[in-house]
Amino acid sequence: xxxxxxxxxxxxxxxxxxxxxxxxxxxxxGNIWGYPTQVADNGGAAFILVYLVCCILVGLPVMxxxxxxxxxxGKNPVGAFKSLDSSGFGAIIGYWGxxxxxxxxxxxxxxxxxxxxYVFEEIFKYSGNSELSAWFGQLxxxxxxxxxxxxxxxxxxxxxNGGVSGGIERATKVLMPFLIFILVAMIIYVFTLEGxxxxxxxxxxxxxxxxxxxLILSAMGQAFFSLSLGMGALITYxxxxxxxxNVMESATYxxxxxxxxxxxxxxxxxxxxxVALNQGIMIFGADGDLISSVALVFTVLPQLxxxxxxxxxxxxxxxxxLLLGLAALTSSISLLEVPVSYxxxxxxxxxxxxxxxxxxxxxxxxxxISFDIGLIDIFVNIFNEIGLPLGGLxxxxxxxxxxxxxxxxxxxxxxxxxxxxSSFVKLWAFFIMYICPVLISIVFxxxxxxxxx
Length: 453
Ligand code: PFF
What we know:
The chain is an all-alpha fold. The protein has one domain (7-392): Hydantoin permease, CATH 1.10.4160. The protein has helices spanning 15-26, 29-41, 45-73, 77-84, 91-126, 130-137, 142-161, 164-191, 196-204, 213-226, 233-238, 247-278, 293-308, 310-347, 351-371, 375-413, 423-452. Helix 7 runs antiparallel to helix 15 (351-371) and helix 8 (164-191) packs antiparallel against helix 14. The radius of gyration is 21 Å and the shape is globular. The site of 4-fluoro-L-phenylalanine (PFF) has 16 residues, from helix 1, helix 2, helix 5, helix 10 and helix 14.
């Protein structure tokens, strides 16, 4: 069970650097597109409560587990599990993470590309060129999807090539505050519009009768995806963490930031839908439910922006899609960093070459998806809904029963003297051994049964 310190791999320069990079990974399409969509889909505020419970009871403990494994070993997910388990069996968890990271990135790039394409869609709409505007706004336009997917991949590779502190940390330090600024400015504006009060009411007043098995499954899946758990992203980011940083505290900050940004993104999107309703835009589907899925953000909101009209409408719409794009970028870099760090560490290939090789493979799948966006659902089912909870479950079992919580607590002592006596730490160990595996198993088995039914 060797601890291998490899300072040449790079480290975060500051305490805030890690928190922002990890929060940047967590905050993404999952928060600004996925979460409001799930809220709309699952009957509003009741979903928020269940989501919160999933994040705190399962998400936070798993995040602490991943970061601890990463920092202890100083390695990518495959190397990390290998070095903590001489039987080699643990490495399977790492390989699964690398595979899920690559496949999630493949569809993530296509959706991220939509955000950039919508910036052009809005500009051409404003300038009265409806043909070009429609071309950029068509979600199933293969050539357009392919172009923007490639552009997004190039941005992602560009940042990854800069390395840990020079690339990822520097980029997220600028992008994250900017993202929060745009989000808050847009919320303030939407709140001044007629109809937003009804949206806020729908968003914050729960109807507990809506809590169902399906809602709980969706909330748990959303928690894993949104917190970037179950595929070793936080093992990788944790591997660049200095020994003097408090893992428990950092993980708590990241979780709070992620939940907070999802919550305020909902505070933008749901009231904006009711503003749209107030302006005569259809926000209910034929079944009488709120329009959800892809349509929510990519069709209802542009109509609202159009109604606002003029340079202000254009400015707000561009800000919104840029915001989505930026959030997606800080997440896509973490998705790519997982397989890239694996190739660097385990195959001794230099960072630039590694990012090109892995980027090329992911791009191949992303281009296939660009021309057949129906595949997104299949990728989401396999690698997100099954893949991430499975990865999280295996991580808990590995830490709790193979590596053992006692060893993890010794690692936690770095940056948190007295960890072994902290009741928070003891509670965490109990959760990782018993509560999280049971809860994730229930969700995992039910998800699989639902999918094959
Ligand atoms: N957390 C990201 C989001 O909410 O969009 C998506 C994601 C990034 C999932 C990194 C998993 C991951 F490892």
